[in-house]
């Protein structure tokens, strides 16, 4: 439905607000039995303290979320690039709304099931960072496009273009009497990477196939540099920059051929190398005031960073452009760096031998794929005053347990006892959020004795 200005809102605010009326019960593992029967809104009204909850528990920090949202939105605005945050990190409509409210162009998602969540809450502009090959998904996306949504998807193979044409040719889906066209971005990859045409020449062939197709329209070029590197050392950065230079070359070749039938998007950028993306691809943008015409199509550069909104105390803390060490880099704990908004609170359930404590959080509760959790604070109870836990480490994680090892020479005489609570720093928000259907947002994770629940984030993985 259009608003008073005649345009459709970026997301259906009423649908997102409606999630707050959900009644909480046994299905929400973050909510103790004493809070069952409350709505999410009542639970988040400030009447529930951290001390009222139970372990294991994942929380988000309100101040860190706001800081991260504002920081990247402003950074993109200052550089004239668009942001389509990768929503698969959180699968949380409330956070998508916060990103869109700060000017995000749209929301990026990874598969058709995630697209359905986005459309259910009324996200109007979506990017599918993947190829459409499933016939049901192709037909569904075409139907959504025919109804007025904008869904831009990727393609890296001439055979995929032919498949889309065949499926939609048989389906007969039309838009105002004309054949529906899907906006397709040609994806460039690289040797050893994930998806994407493996050379500029191969990508040009795909683009030409899109141009000749009945149901496709060339919308730009893109890809993901993060699949080609996982470090910020010289070798990693060189691989990223070489790839981005090739992506820019692909775009320039298509411009020279007049291959774009309208405005174009050039898109790359996760949360690890977005500075290089803007440095190399930024000059492709023609400026927001451009409307194409005789001088060529309007071109926008679109970042797709997703992990930044939650950030972490592990992989992204080390690799983010805002926190890498070295010349012209930022203080990783400074005002111009992202802040980790997520923590797991875990309780000691066993201290079976000296120097070993077993916590009640495991792989089902916290991420381990980008590094083990890091012990940060310890206290006698959840919501009690806590002090730093130095000289301790997590050595192994089972499905439901962590092994916390301490060294009496470096842990300042701390003896862990059953019932003690440890705050853990985490690595990789994507595989933290998918373990929780509802995540309490507290006002200050660094002052647990005063922390209260001020919001909740509902996820749909």
TrEMBL record:
Pfam families membership: D-ser_dehydrat
Occurrences of domain D-serine dehydratase-like (ranges): 341-443
Name of this chain's protein: Alanine racemase
Species annotation: Tersicoccus solisilvae
